[in-house]
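User: For a benchmark we're assembling, each entry needs the component sequences followed by a predicted structure for the full assembly. Here are entry 17's components. Please fill in the structure.
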Amino acid sequence: MISSKEVLEKARNENYAVPAFNIHNLENFQVVVESSAELRSPVIIAATPGTVKYAGAEFLIKMAEASIQKYKIPIILHLDHFVDKEEIKSLIRLGFGSVMIDASMEEYEKNIIISHEVSDYAHNFNATVEAELGKLGGREEHIEVKDDEVFLTNPDYVCDFINRTNIDSLAVAIGTAHGLYKNKPKLDFERLKTINKKVNIPLVLHGASDLPDDDVIKCIEYGINKVNIATELKVPFSKAVRKYLVDHPDESDPRNYMTPGKEAMRDIVIKKIKLCGSEGKF
Ligand code: 13P
Ligand code: ZN
Ligand code: NA
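Assistant: Structure for entry 17:
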């Protein structure tokens, strides 16, 4: 089975993106791996600190191992938006092979020190590290960034940042935000193009839910190799479960009321894999 590094590097060489789906429970996990297997797509399963706490790190690792064994496609279990480097280190020791250290809220030099420490540690375990330069808007679980705190990635700093942190992939802020958009998002494609010309590691797009398909396609064309999707899965899943429970007020069997949620989520997962261009890559 190819490593997380190779999965993103293959995407970079062949100009597509690997979708990274945030999951929260068994049902989400199943839908993501089943759909990816059906479409022969590599996939990243992203777990935030809240998800690791909720689902249990050991269970997530075992589910990923079982999925890889069953489906024989690259399934990468990834820690998303982790801020505590000691927590990341202990999860790497436990078996996580792909992590994001999010020190984007720190000032530049501190972001470098923290990201570098994590990447040094991770590489001893053959784990790969994503870090963020710039600051994305919106809310992702424990991290909320107000509109006036957002700042886009400065292309003049990306080479210095990558060289000094030794990270494996870079999350960029080019105008996307976590969650749904209050106003139509305006992405800075020129900035992305400039960054892409300067770097030779995979670039990551956070906040991809609720973006027009054309914007995602352009981002991939201009150098994005990992597309993070959370909200667009959560919303239809909950909507479908809610509707089922309202329509069946006496239902108490999770296998029955979770199923419509899974089906609603499956449609989006399939759509996003196709959008990323990762279908049939394995
Ligand atoms: P969305 O919720 O906008 O899809 O953002 C997901 C994300 O960036 C996870 O890290
Ligand atoms: Zn994110
Ligand atoms: Na979003």
